[in-house]
Amino acid sequence: MRIKGKRVIIRPLILEDVYSMRNWGYHSNPLLADYNFPIMDNEDIKKWYEVKTKSFFNKYYGILNKDNRLIGYIGIKGIKFIRGQSTLGIVLDPNYINKGYGTEVLKNFLNYYFTRMKMKIMYLEVTKFNTRAYQLYKNMGFKLISYYLDEFFNQDLDLNNNYYLQGKSGFVIKDGKIYNYIYKMELDKNTFLKKF
Predict the structure, then answer these.
(1) What's 3-195's CATH class?
(2) Relative to the CA of 90, which of 76, 142, 178, 184 has its CA 20 to 30 Å away?
(3) pTM for the complete prediction?
(4) What is the pLDDT of residue 93?
């Protein structure tokens, strides 16, 4: 499998890709720190790769730019082949966000997913405060179907931080704990193909 776009190539994730993720940038926004690639030694990287790729019901792909540099990865998890559905995840090197790569990757990958893989529905989850990603998914045709509260990964978050203050409506503080809203979204084949 190899998907070629104008500026990107999407192909199965390989172990060498994960080693190169150690050279990625870091999000300055503390709300997105959980998306930063963690510091791992070679053994940890091998384990990370095995966990991601060992299941028949999960598939992960590397995203390369025209210079053959790995700029992200995309995954589909919990694949239900008979129902034709799975859950999407995408992570880009912070050095390559806000440059249109997310749009190009999703258009190309979703087209492959719905036409070549013959799948029917794609789900995803996104935090309410991640307005950039949420808008991208809406532009792809995803619809909000439900939401829930989840415990935020950083309980020591500075509540006076500007990023937090801008995204405050996406959070709830209860009994001294920080929670954030997670949006669940859905895209069906017909909606995507009509749109694109």
Answers:
(1) alpha beta
(2) 178
(3) 0.94
(4) 97
